[in-house]
Design goal:
Helix content: 40-55%
Bound molecules: calcium ion
CATH architecture of the largest domain: 3-Layer(aba) Sandwich
CATH topology of the largest domain: Rossmann fold
Radius of gyration: 19 Å
Structural class: alpha/beta
CATH class of the largest domain: Alpha Beta
Order of helices and strands: EHEHEHEHEHHEEEEHHHEE
Strand order of the largest sheet: 2-1-3-4-5
Strand content: 15-25%
Number of domains: 2
Number of strands: 11
Distance between the termini: 30 Å
Number of helices: 9
Amino acid sequence: MSQSPLAPHVLLVEDEPAQREMLAYNLQAEGFRVTQASDGDEGLSCLRDDPPDVLVLDWMLPGVSGIEICRRLRARPETRSLPVIMLSARSEEVDRVRGLEIGADDYVTKPYAVAELLARVRAQLRRVRPSTVGQVLEYADIVLDAETHRVTRSGQLLKLGPTEFRLLAALMEKPGRVWSREQLLDRVWGRDIFVDTRTVDVHVGRLRKALMALGGDDPLRTVRGAGYAIG
Ligand code: CA
């Protein structure tokens, strides 16, 4: 299943397979892109390779604990404001306080109702990515409307192919962020399709041309050895 690059990304770190899969299924059904990790170390490498918009983190994990992951995230400037929802089987108030003290944004006690957890994920997302609510992304004079599939620059409609549209959506989701070719392949073409990384360069070239077709500077940035960004 290929998902829109606009789909908000949730990383789920939970060691109990049944719980993790049930939650992943429900999040995907709600339109989220979900990455699953079954222990602390896998969670940390997912955080590094494909940073999510929201992290759902189990407290008790094999290897690096949820508490320790949260502490590390808060110590780094680039992940300091990443929304973290802690899950825990512990229900005592002291643990709740401790969870919030080490920097979790929310705390849910097991067993929880899936609907409630989904609502909390959405609440965190509204805080960090309000743009996904209306499905309209804006950068400088460029406006991308995901519902109508239209892109305008200074109010003028641009002609973009479907791949260029998804590529632009992925880049505009986080202006300034540099995406590697591999990350763009995952987000735009999907993880299961074999496409050469040079294909990314070809489509970035087409996107550049389309964005400048009616005038204006090149908004895309090529970062040597790293990848591409908008802004
Ligand atoms: Ca656990």
